[in-house]
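---------- Forwarded message ----------

FYI, see the Flavoprotein record below. Original note from H. follows.
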Amino acid sequence: MSKTNQSPEPVEPAAGSGCCGVSGCCTDAERSLDASVTVTEAKTNAGCGCVTDAKETGLPVVVVGAGPVGLAAAAHLAGRGLDFVVLEAGTQVGAAISEWGHVRLFSPWRYDTDAAARRLLEPTGWRLPDPDALPTGAELVRDYLAPLAEVPALAGRIRTGTRVVAVTRHGLDVTRTVGRDEQPLLVRTVGADGAVTDLAARAVIDASGTWGATNPLGHSGLPAPGEEQAAPYLAGPLPDVVGRDRDRFAGRHTLVVGMGHSAANTLLALAELAKAAPGTRITWAVRGSSVARLYGGGDADGLPARGALGTRLKKAVQDGEIDLVRGFTITRFAVDSSDQAVQVTGATPDGEHVIAADTVVAATGFRPDLGMLREIRLDLDPATEAPTKLAPLIDPNFHSCGTVPPHGERDLAHPEAGFYLAGMKSYGRAPTFLMATGYEQVRSIAAALAGDREAADTVQLDLPETGVCSTNLVTEDQLPGSTAQDDGCGTSCATTPAPDPIHQDGTEAAGGSCCGTAAPEPISIGVGAPAGLGFTTGIEHGYSGEAERADA
């Protein structure tokens, strides 16, 4: 006789368990009476005496990633008197930023550092560099992250060359429920020598970012056939065209794929290189039929810097310096060993088109690496791969960075008690991340871990009065110094503030910038070695605003 599926009988609260907000308090049968909170949070909120003070467990908080947001998390934890350790896969702090060290940020120094980090740095004699200067990625590491890693409160707690390969719950895989919250988290690492080490943690803040987990070049979110075999011909999103990587591009044919600011950065740098290196050819392939979004509004653009750079890019295309191929959807790669080129085949409105190139610059953005998190319980939005509560606040279909509201620990929490995604990785595939937002995230998380619920819940998007905004990680849409992905922001806008940058209705000031209306003057930045003009990013009403500008 077959059994039918039936819902289990509800578990009645054990006698005397009301104070804990759970059923079967302090037994293996305990469950939170409020399904929206964990057992530990229910006990803590109810003031139950049978929950151990997490600060007394003797286990550290593990922070994954020693970039700006990871080190800001460490600074806030230190300020709260909590034990912690920072794990960094690279050989130095800010290792990912160092890979695009030639890029100059849009935001000046005054907006690139975290408040808790500055409180640790200033007693050492550190002083903020020229507040109005725009640092390169290399300068951000050298003049901020490296000194921060050496302050007494952080020194000795940062382990470089230590890659996190998995996070789980000690003694339990993801399927086990009973008593789960009472077991410590377990972080498995692999050192530079290949040694595997397991670390027990009271909490984990994954601020490892998305650098290195690139989106594929094929369509529909999938790699194109042959893409893996073509890997030797593919360059990252921000090659140092006129510097470190010059020999790879000089006198050769480069195909740039993507319609974000990293594509624009590379295209203009290649155009500069072509003036000095005969035989340098540039092809720019985009899936859409319009590039108006990247060109901006020219002289009529509400943001002069964006309009200036858009005008330069448009002129380079019109003058034949850059061969623009619209409506190009990559369908396969083939390596031609006879002439050491890669054949990139794409579907276009006029039929199949093949582009032969020496190098393909993949400026198609990033996605989070979730493989290391298979054994913990995540609650992620199926579209953005961001925490479910955060996802509607950052959805790029309706938001650019200026319309993302403040959010904190409660929005970042997962069913796995004590685990948090923070920084760019918390935004999943959404390109609306700001460095300032990441700093506020980890401030709120640290407050919650210290038991300061009021501080954790008092969250604000602390943007400067000028509306400057920036991020720490390089993603699809970047120019020199920009770190925004696709249509997102993460740039320094150098604009006056929007009337209310935290409204969730998608409203932006004139020009559709991520930060507000235009400043009187553009910001001068570098495009590789040559000087150039940077521009801000952000589509009014997110992706949904694209249809309004399909005119180029």
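H. also flagged this: The radius of gyration is 25 Å.
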